[in-house]
Here is the input.
Amino acid sequence: MTVQCPKISEIAVIADDAHLAAQLSCVLAVSGKYLPILEQPRLTRPDRDAEVIRCTNALARSKAKHFIFAGVGDITSTALSVGVPAHKTIHVRTAADISTLPLPVRKLDKEPLVWGKDRTGIGLLKALRA
Here is the structure.
C-alpha cells in the first residue's frame, strides 16, 4: 500500500502566537494540502543569524507564494525580509486582521470551539474530531 503525501499550500505562516496560528490554520486549510506553519526565528539566541537562515530556507523549500507573519514583531520581520520578499508578505497582528486577508479563506459556519491558550494541542484534536 502506498501513501501519497499531501501537496504543500502556496501559503506559509510564520507565527509568534500559537493561538493566532491555529485560527489562521482553520480559515486557510484546504483539503488535501498541507499548510506549513513555522515558529518565528528566536532572535535572542546567540546563533540568531542561523535561526533566520533556517526559517528562510524552510520557506524557500515550501515554494509558497504568500507568507503570513502572524503576531511577528517588527525586528523579526526586518530580519526575515532578507529571504522573504516584502510584496509577498502579509502581516496579521490580531484575530481581527484575519477577515481582511487578501486571500481566499474558508467561511466558518459553525460555532467556534473554545479552549484555553494553554491547551492548543487538545483544542486542535477536538477540532479534528468535530
